[in-house]
Amino acid sequence: MTEKPCPLSRPEVDGIVERFPTPFHFYEEERIRETARRFSNAFAWVPGGYRNYFAVKALPNPHVMRVLHEEGMGFDCSSLPELLLCEQIGVTREELFFTSNDTPAEEFREARRVGARINLDDISHIPFLERVAGIPEFACIRYNPGPLREGNAIIGSPEEAKYGFTRDQVIDGYRLLQRKGVRRFGLHTMVASNELNPDYFIETARMVFELAAEIHERLGIRIELVNLGGGIGIPYRPDQDPADIEYVSNGIRKLYGDIVVQGELDPLAIAMENGRCITGPHGYLVSRVRHTKQTYKQFVGLDATMADLMRPGMYGAYHHISVPGKEHLPLDEEYDVTGSLCENNDKFAIDRKLPKIEVGDYVVIHDTGAHGHAMGFNYNGKLRAAELLRRPDGSVHRIRRAETVEDYFATLDFTQLDAEG
Ligand SMILES: *Cc1c(COP(=O)(O)O)cnc(C)c1O
Fold first, then answer.
1. Is pTM, for the whole model, over 0.70?
2. Per-residue pLDDT tens over the stretch 78-132
3. Terminus of the chain with fewer CB atoms < 10 Å: N or C?
4. Cβ-count burial of 316 within 10 angstroms (0-12 exposed, 13-18 middle, 19+ buried)?
């Protein structure tokens, strides 16, 4: 693929901004549903059941989460507010995973209260959990293969990662959990982020299946669920192809026969925690050109900033850019596309070939549906943008308003200041 189609024409953007001013993130419900269905269809063969627990941190908006829940997804939470967000939309118990690290006591208590499946990040968390919240019937262990696997740029090498148990700790951990009264067991790993190579995920399944078989053999403990984590990438660049989910599924299916059935672990449930590949490609940051500037380079200044999308500034990540109404013009200009934050890495693109841009043009930044709005922040007094959802019937709804100065001030107490004065 060399083209990334933009779902918004200039007249459509003109219509939307009459009701909702830029900047905003724009999500497409129909596409999100299609992607969710593609996953559940691809893994419908799993004898013990398949479920993707959408990583809430990727897009923590209850309107989108409800759509995903309707499509059969559960949720992976890593904090107390994320657990509460799920409870707000009526999702509790086995539809929730709680995958945290450096976990505070109250979060374990909350996870127990809503009945989430607790995924333990460290062997020391077993006695900690027992002390602060009690031992649940089901528990999952997060495995970090360390030098046995290679990571990638975003997540780094597993040996350097702060997450999970070593291999030896996994064995000791299940022994300890069993002694403390856990009766049902899960095994988790997450070793990649934004990975497009489908074989990587098949290898991860092999690693986890083999470890589950070894645990069965050595400890007599039967793992009932493996969680392969998230991390399936998306084609941010026009020349990249999406990961082939059906290919991943077929590869895992073969290993299931070879390892899981042979190891007498069938039926084994398979879970994943994908966030990015479910909603990422179906979100767009829509922004308006405020100024253009010509110095040593050509700049386009938007009304959005890296507070609305920090991936380019943080990771140097590529996000494709379309200019509605100028789709057919030649890309014969080169721009740095910036926000207004007082940080020189507040750039959505550097040296990007684009059509000639004028003040008032709209700029659509692609693939912001995961880790986009969610990573926003208020540095420099920047206020986070709104979120809009296009329903399958074509209607556009605001599902989060833009922040206001009052929101920015909400944690400050000016009356105290007066009293001191
Ligand atoms: C961030 C995260 C995910 C989701 O990752 P994606 O790249 O969005 O698929 C899943 N599981 C855990 C534990 C995470 O930290």
1. yes
2. 999 999 999 999 999 999 999 999 999 999 999 999 999 999 999 999 999 999 9
3. C
4. exposed
| Residue range 9-29, pLDDT digits in tens | 999 999 999 999 999 999 999
**Which domains does the chain carry?**
29-279 (3.20.20.10), 282-409 (2.40.37.10)
Instruction: Write the single-letter amino acid at 115.
Output: G
Q: Which atom of ligand 1 is nearest to the CA of 58?
A: 8
Q: How far is the CA of 33 from the centre of ligand 1 (A)?
A: 19
Phi-psi group of 201: left, alpha or beta (phi > 0 → left; psi -120 to 50 → alpha; rest → beta): alpha
CA–CA distance, 290 with 299 (Å, rounded to integer): 11
Task: Choose the residue to mutate in 193, 227, 311 for probing ligand 1, maximizing ligand atoms within 8 Å of C-beta.
Answer: 193
Residue with tokens 């660049």: 237
Confirm whether 342 is a catalytic residue.
yes
Which residue among the candidates 86, 140, 277, 342 is catalytic per the annotation? 342
